[in-house]
Amino acid sequence: xxxxxxxxxxxxxxxxxxxxxxxxxxxxxxxxxxxxxxxxxxxxxxxxxxxxxxxxxxxxxxxxxxxxxxxxxxxxxxxxxxxxxxxxxxxxxxxxxxxxxxxxxxxxxxxxxxxxxxxxxxxxxxxxxxxxxxxxxxxxxxxxxxxxxxxxxxxxxxxxxxxxxxxxxxxxxxxxxxxxxxxxxxxxxxxxxxxxxxxxxxxxxxxxxxxxxxxxxxxxxxxxxxxxxxxxxxxxxxxxxxxxxxxxxxxxxxxxxx
Length: 258
Ligand code: DGL
Fold this sequence. Notes:
alpha/beta; 5-stranded parallel sheet; 9 strands; globular
């Protein structure tokens, strides 16, 4: 098969990366996708670094062995743990990892207060620390670890009392006048409405899905790997939690409103 006709591989620790997948599908409707979610081992964000690195490497290898022409690491946690190693292992594969969308939030308003919601690992790792230092003179950046939040999405809970109480406590712990919130975990865009409701309409919410999809498209074009001709793209879901319910949740999230 011609390389450009192969699918784009997308990986996340669970179903969260589907928030990136829907942006990829929107920007490249003619491409096929293969999405692997590792829900059996989720959450990654509270595990030891080396374990997440190994899981990520194993899962990316699986996608490449399954015929993926390029890889989107649609997980901020896995990106911070393993993207440097992956780039060394696969220098010829277009590979894009998502990271918290701090730059657009900094550009949106000068000297604003930006809360970055992410997993404990993403916020602790060097990649994020470097990103934060890069912009620390231009904004008040407040890292907000959210252990337990991705689990709501994994269970298909996208609204309701339990989630609202959890998020009210979490956002209430930031004793500042928040201007924007960066969703630094790919599960969080699925609970964006609840976050917006609690934070208030004046707060602008950013996520990295659109920028990541744009970067993948650019990298494919550069490598001559964008699929040509009229083809209606398809997505194949694979999850380590191989149940009908899990696959139904994946299909549901792919069409879930933004
Ligand atoms: N979607 C992952 C991320 O973007 C979730 C993290 C987890 O598995 O804890 O960080």
